[in-house]
Amino acid sequence: MLFDHSCLGVLSFPVLLSCALLLIFDRSFGTAFYLSDIFVSGMPLEATGGSPLLFEHLFWFLGHPEVYIILLPALGLISEIISTNSRKPIFGYRAMIVSVLAIAFLSFIVWGHHMFMTGMNPFLGTVFTFTTLLIAIPSAIKVFNYLATIWKGNLRLTPGMMFALGMVSLFISGGLTGLILGDSALDINIHDTYFVVGHFHIVMGAGAIFGMFAGVYHWFPRMYGRFMLPKMGYLHFWMTIAGVYGVFFPMHFLGLAGVPRRYFSNEEYELFKDLGNINVIITCFAIMAAIGQLIFIFNFFYSIFKGRKSSQNPWGSNTLEWTAPIERIHGNWEGKLPEVHRWPYDYSKPGHDEDFVSQNVPLKAGEEESH
After folding, report:
1. Which of 23, 71, 271, 298 is the most buried (most CB within 10 A)?
2. 299: confidence class by pLDDT, cuts 50, 70, 90
3. Taking a C-beta distance cutoff of 8 angstroms, is the pair 216, 222 a contact?
4. Domain boundaries, the chain
5. Residues 6 or more apart in contact with residue 212 via CB below 8 angstroms
6. Which H or E run contains 40?
């Protein structure tokens, strides 16, 4: 996933840089990359012949891969956390790898679904609708991989696992609303409304943050040799997920009612006056979610010094970082670096005393390597 993440960044960020450079040229050096036949106070600008839509094309060519640049590392984190706390190998590992590669490729040919309302040729809009719906397939494969890994697993609902499951929930919820926005006929009704705000922040903003929190709780013992306070972790999770859904889920209904985004106040319009109570509810949930983050910050710094001490491998994980000694030493391991003999998901494997086998344990005679 990090390889895909890096490729997306290398290929998409130069386009944004080019976009910004062309804008600087237009504003400072009299070029017309983005300036068409524009009149100011009845007088035509000297620089003409460009296209304002070129800016949108260049910006959104970065904008959609950027979603996965942020999401893919979080998905990598929860893949490890869900497998470890389900005590099962990740289901459909090869299918998951293929789906990640497909997501990376398709993310470069869907940018036009942000521009359905720009006067785009209807045929081109159909093409972008098709590619947008197509990217839902590898995304759904990843969701099914996670659900199948959890299914009949020996689940340990640690705070890290709770946030990982929360991210799967947000990925499903945000993905389903994305199908609506990705359809050119449906997008006409909800473009630039609060529906877009709710979708975006559930699937990417909150989803990536939940993956980050899952990683912090899971690898905190590895970083500091202590556990974070679990009761505070559970409280943080429930306040955060309730806050996220309480803030962004009602926004979908505001969008369906036609409430536009980026307006200072919508209550000036008679049509939206009765929707003001929904904004009050959203504000209450936002405050609750903010309080939850204060709990996390306290838990994090308190646990560094006062948390319960951890063993070297408290979660029974089989990846190499858990074989390093707790003491901080240069190079992480004393002497020779460990040698990898296995894939990272040998959980509940028959023929072994423990329900996990570390990657540095050599294969037994007659034992085949898992894949």
Report:
1. 71
2. very high
3. no
4. 61-306, 311-371
5. 74, 77
6. strand 39-40
- Whether 200 contacts 259, CB under 8 Å: no
- Helical residues (DSSP H) of 151-190, grouped into ranges: 159-181, 184-190
Q: What is the pLDDT of residues 210-229, one digit of tens each?
A: 999 999 999 999 999 999 99
Of the chain, the end-to-end C-alpha distance in Å amounts to: 17
pLDDT in tens, 261-277: 888 777 777 778 778 78
Alpha helices by DSSP H, 87-229: 93-106, 122-150, 159-181, 184-190, 194-200, 207-224
61-306 CATH pick, 1.20.210.10, 3.40.50.1100, 3.40.710.10, 3.40.50.1000: 1.20.210.10
- CA distances to 174, 198, 236 from 194, rounded to whole Å, are 14, 6, 27
Task: Answer for the pair 263, 205: CB distance below 8 angstroms, yes or no.
Answer: no
